[in-house]
Write a structure and sequence with these properties.
The structure holds two protein chains of two kinds.
Chain A: H1 2-22, H2 26-46, H3 50-75, H4 78-81, H5 90-110, H6 127-137, H7 139-160, H8 164-168, H9 170-174
Helix pairs in contact in A: 1-2, 2-3
Chain B: H1 3-12, H2 14-29, H3 37-59, E1 68-70, E2 75-77, H4 79-105, H5 112-129, H6 133-151, H7 158-189, H8 194-202, H9 209-226, H10 234-241, H11 244-268, H12 274-296, H13 302-323, H14 326-353, H15 369-372, H16 374-388, H17 394-408, H18 412-437, H19 467-485, H20 487-499
Antiparallel strand pairs in B: 1-2
Helix pairs in contact in B: 2-3, 2-5, 3-4, 4-5, 4-11, 4-14, 4-19, 4-20, 5-6, 5-11, 6-7, 6-11, 7-9, 7-10, 9-11, 10-11, 10-13, 11-13, 11-14, 12-13, 12-18, 13-14, 13-17, 13-18, 14-16, 14-17, 14-19, 14-20, 16-18, 16-19, 17-18, 17-19, 19-20
The chains are: A mainly alpha, B mainly alpha.
Amino acid sequence: MEREFFLLLATVATGSGFLVVVAKDPIHSALALVACFVQIAALFILLGAPFLAVIQIFVYVGAVMVLFLFVIMMLNVRQEALTRFIPSGAIAAFVVTLVLAVEMGLLLSWSSDLHQLMAPAAEPPSVNALSLALFQDYLLPFEVASVILLVALVGAVILARDDEKADASPRRALHPAQGRVPGRVATPDTMPDILPDNGPDTGREPDNGPGTSGGMRR
Amino acid sequence: MDTDLIAASVRASSPEIIVIIGACAALMLSLWPHQDQQKYLTWLSLITILLASAQTLQLSPRPVNIVETTYSGMFVVDAFATYFKMLLYLGTALTILMSGKFLQTEEAVKGEYYVLLLFALAGTMIMVSGADLLIIYIGLELQALSIYVLTGFLKTRGRSVEAALKYVILGAFSSGILLYGLSLIYGLTGSTQLGVLNSALATADLSEPMLILATVFLLVGLLFKIGAVPFHMWVPDIYEGAPTPITAYLSVASKTAAFAVLLRVFMGSLIGLEPLWSSGLAAIAVATMALGSLVALVQDNIKRLLAYSSISHVGFLLLGIIAGTTSGMSAILLYLLIYTFMTLGLFAIVILLHRDVRAGEPLTLFSGLAQSHAGLAFMAMIFLFSLAGIPPTGGFFAKFYVLVALIDAGHVTLAVIAVLLSAVAAWFYLRLIMLIYIQPAEPTTGSTAAPATGPTGHARAAILLSAPMRLVLLFSFSGTVLSGIFPAWFLAMARQASLSGLGN
């Protein structure tokens, strides 16, 4: 019975994960990601870790994804995301990916260890045991992860902050087009605090010389 | 974990703690509006690094073969980690020194720059000291996250933002691959601790397909981080777009830390799986050297040229892993030290010649340097000779010891290929020297330079050597020259670090 449930949940999780990538509308992607997270929470229950399942629902589905949806709706990136930017070489990439996937599948299915991996947990670990593991054996990763969060916070502020100094610089006055590409951002004037003037989506400067077109260059 | 254990763990990781506290202090200092803020931040960062290095030296194991493991076997202090940490301090400190002028030219003086560099340093230190795949991964992410932001630090420059975006996406992709391999290893052995892995894999069945898959994924994930050939395509774009001091940091400190991980994991824990990875790694090393050297020949941007040059150096370093012996490892350690000196030195000169991001860094920046600045031109020549591996400089001995280790281990064919390819690589370094000494300093940059940006239009006559820049050049120049004159002394240092084993 456990096996059947695992297959069901894993199939839905993989399917919705796939949907995250192929869905055209970012809202659909986000909702598919929610579905994926719920399936993973169910998998945690199947593995005998109810606490992790609850955390998964609370943190990922409840907090992170709601924030995602909020940002998508707020910034109105839906229009932009509708244009595809996968280049024409995608077919070659798809073929290579397919070959690698088949190779991986074959290697996995030949393995004799594969079926021994899913040993059911003897008894569901308590929250107590979890906290002991977190603060004794895994104290260092726990602390370093908090530093990573600090770096992410600082980095986000740096990248999103509006720079008055850069705005006032004479170079910008010389190149008015480099700041804002009209039409790319739907409503730039209504939310000046949220949209950085030179965010990553404003395209590149018009005159930065040869050899700076997009894509990987050699 | 009782109090004694906690105290021992805190003591062992005190250099990391010092660096993180220093970064937090710099973060607060950067909020204080002051005219000399940048100067204070530079001093604070340098003092932090100095304190951390003093603490690292004080903790360094005596005798060298003692290995201290703390944090439930996750964190290790041994001679290997100490050597690499000193190397990282050197790289980061020189990067900080050469950043001041660049940030002023680019009008991007912000305190967070130093904060993020210090956090990146902490991340690399944790990578180097990690004795568990999990903590190695977390250190890697700490380092990578800081560098993503630093790559896109020039927010108003399209190239910088483009490079940052590419780096984030490819970095996340390679981290995914690395994590997948890591989870497979955990599934197969039931542990992520390197010491446990070593004993668990010693008796493993090498024809087990899952083991092959896990090894391949782990190797590919790490090769992505050092930019070896099938996984190198991000290197030139990101090196070109990033602020030049960050490019220098990327090509030196990031690479050094990733090599430390590669050595610790593959020459320590996965040595039992050597038949699985050694032939593949040999092919990758040769391809890396070949592509790096050949494609560098046609570059016309100095930063892209240095990116390909660093790719070909990575290929050479991988040969030391293939040799697989202690002498191979000490050759890599020595190589990384000399590579730090000569690359940072050359990058300092690139920064001095730099005018404007929009003008780019065409090779013609160097033309006629000898006429206007004989001293700088001479230093550039020495750095380039060293990078090419021409005898009186350190770069020659770096390559020489790798080759000796390779031949001792019986890989004569590989050694011959390496010599031939480094002859190819020498050509483009020599081309730069030719530009410096033979080409007249005519303003040939008209097509790519910014249209008449005023007084900086042709700034050749006015290269201001500030005190920090002098210090960087002094350090890197003397390092490059001294390692060429007294290679044995430097080699002894590297050998001592590699003899201590890998903390298993």
